[in-house]
């Protein structure tokens, strides 16, 4: 297995690397008892400058399930960044306190700072508005688990494709697979950014930008819904206008294929109605659980533990 030290994007991860993480995550999922002591004596630092539930708790759960320990903070307000400390200094200091770190931050470019200043492995837990690589990895793992493959699937991504950072990471991950057809569904104001579109044009996949899901819902294998990212809108009036653009209810899903699955990185606001939760295609809570296995596999990989 190839070991890596920093995970800040899915762009530079090879299909082979992704597959090796998924295969380890699957082994962990099947026999978690074999991994209970793999990280004895190791410490994971949680450096979260933005709110989080799943990413933070699943990283914590992952390290604890490997026998390691955790330390850190869940808000920039309670760390020295509130006094003006730079990320570079925080990271350099954490190098003496922990063996591996996960960082969530609103700034793009945190990865470059980590690569420059950190001697311990660092993983993005969501950085800026364009990167959430471990979310993309657990999304891909969930798709692979459901279909046994990713090649050849028809996948729609819907919602806030502009500000949602899970979107570019997932798109670049999907681009590593063959013959994937993508439908990008959003209000025109929330389409993918032009640099993301340019990159997609250079990949071996077909993608269509549309605004109505009813045209394609019966062909889809996967629908990935995201929330409209209130906190990232420069103008809250735009958010108010666009916030209820889409709603998935059982009626929307009347004609889906038997094997169809519905995913969401969560948190959801009102874009999937609660009545959908009991349908067999609703996989978003299982998706969140898969995050623990994928993050366990990543921690092992970055710490170089066989
Ligand atoms: C995402 C994030 O923080 O970007 N959350 C997550 O990690 N599942 C998605 C979101 O906040 O909408």
From TrEMBL:
GO biological process, one term: amino acid metabolic process
Organism superkingdom: Archaea
Associated pathway: Pyrimidine metabolism; UMP biosynthesis via de novo pathway; (S)-dihydroorotate from bicarbonate: step 2/3
UniProt keyword list: Pyrimidine biosynthesis, Transferase
Catalytic activity reported: carbamoyl phosphate + L-aspartate = N-carbamoyl-L-aspartate + phosphate + H(+)
EC category: transferase
EC number: 2.1.3.2
Transmembrane helix as UniProt keyword: no
Positions of the Aspartate/ornithine carbamoyltransferase carbamoyl-P binding domain: 7-144
Keyword Hydrolase: no
UniProt: L-aspartate binding residues: 83, 165, 227
Annotated binding of carbamoyl phosphate, by residue: 54-55, 104, 132, 135, 266-267
Functional note: Catalyzes the condensation of carbamoyl phosphate and aspartate to form carbamoyl aspartate and inorganic phosphate, the committed step in the de novo pyrimidine nucleotide biosynthesis pathway.
UniProt subunit comment: Heterooligomer of catalytic and regulatory chains.
PANTHER family reported for this sequence: ASPARTATE CARBAMOYLTRANSFERASE, ORNITHINE CARBAMOYLTRANSFERASE, MITOCHONDRIAL
Family: Belongs to the aspartate/ornithine carbamoyltransferase superfamily. ATCase family.
Protein name: Aspartate carbamoyltransferase
Organism, scientific name: Candidatus Heimdallarchaeum aukensis
Annotated gene: pyrB
């Amino acid at each position: 297995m190839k070991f890596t030290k920093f995970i800040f994007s899915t762009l530079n991860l090879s299909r082979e690397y992704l597959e090796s993480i998924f295969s380890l995550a699957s082994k962990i999922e099947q026999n978690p008892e074999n991994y209970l002591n793999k990280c004895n004596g190791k410490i994971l630092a949680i450096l979260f400058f933005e709110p989080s539930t799943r990413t933070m708790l699943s990283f914590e759960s992952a390290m604890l399930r490997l026998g390691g320990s955790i330390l850190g903070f869940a808000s920039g307000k309670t760390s020295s960044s509130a006094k003006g400390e730079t990320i570079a200094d925080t990271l350099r200091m954490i190098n003496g306190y922990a063996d591996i770190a996960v960082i969530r931050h609103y700034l793009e470019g945190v990865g470059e700072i980590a690569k420059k200043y950190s001697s311990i492995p660092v993983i993005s837990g969501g950085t800026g508005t364009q990167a959430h690589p471990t979310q993309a990895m657990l999304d891909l793992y969930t798709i692979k688990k459901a279909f046994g493959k990713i090649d050849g699937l028809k996948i729609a991504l819907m919602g806030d494709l502009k500000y949602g950072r899970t979107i570019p990471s997932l798109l670049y991950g999907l681009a590593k697979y063959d013959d994937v057809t993508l439908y990008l569904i959003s209000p025109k104001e929330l389409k993918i950014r032009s640099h993301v579109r340019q990159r997609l044009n250079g990949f071996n996949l077909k993608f269509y930008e549309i605004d109505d899901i009813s045209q394609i819902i019966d062909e889809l294998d996967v629908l990935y819904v995201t929330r409209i990212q209130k906190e990232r809108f420069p103008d809250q009036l735009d958010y108010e206008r666009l916030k209820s653009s889409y709603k998935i209810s059982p009626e929307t899903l009347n004609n889906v294929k038997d094997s169809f699955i519905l995913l969401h990185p969560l948190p959801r606001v009102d874009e999937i109605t609660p009545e959908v939760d009991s349908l067999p295609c609703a996989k978003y809570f299982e998706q969140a659980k898969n995050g623990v296995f994928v993050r366990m596999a990543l921690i092992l990989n970055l710490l170089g533990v066989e």
